[in-house]
Design goal:
mainly alpha, two-stranded parallel sheet, 2 strands, 2% strand, elongated
Length: 293
Amino acid sequence: MKSNATVDVDRVLESAKLRGPALVVLLCAASSLILDGFDIQAVGFVAPALVGALHLERAALGPALAASLVGMAIGAASIGALGDRWGRRRTLLLSTALFGVASLLAATSSSVATLAVWRFITGIGLGGALTAATALIAEFSPRKLRSQAIGAVQIGVPIGGMLGALLAAELIPAYGWRSVFVIGGVLPLVAAAVMYFVLPESPRFLATRPQARESLARLLARIDAGGRYSASDVFVLGEEPRPTRSGVSALFSPQLRWDTAALLIACVAVLLVRRQIAARENYFAAGASTSGA
């Protein structure tokens, strides 16, 4: 490829395979969402122990149980939107670090009110990580593999919940309920530190930033080893149709309306599963508190 050439970034990505930088993104995004799934359910894991440790009625834990879900809704809308300004990579790093720090601080809680505050902040990070990870893998993947890649990443959330339940069963009897939040904080911070060095930015995002042409040229050279790219090239996005509107209305434009509908159905299904898991956790927590009494 000659210097000063016009490079269609969409076409490069569509012809690439899910390997190299794309595989790194897939593994990083999946890891972040596995930890996301762990921290989503963390307060449910510790609920029976909290009832006894803080001498509470089971119903008093309601604010702490709900706070993270409220935070997730806010985080998905607010931090997720920052990805369009700051980049998907930076947003994912920030979100992962945020829910890690907030989880560590939740371990210092001495009351339900304090725990609810930290869980709310944890939820903001969880919601931001979910949207940023999904956007990043979607923009790295060719269209023929995009749905499979997004599904592979998002399945990390229930996997994290299942692994967390197994881990909590070992941690709480040996180290107490605070240990769950400590692990739920340390692991995301370690993951964010690793991702800082290995996670690339979305090429499609970089293509919209003229000042990032040098970074984009280096990244495309890693994705397409047979091509030659230079910062002096003109990078365009021309393969995929894009909405002409911006903001929320763009989600229902002809180019995105079916993807929006599919994602809404998927998100509703995930929420229903989480509600079912939460109801089951409350059931077992009630049984534990009754037997403890």
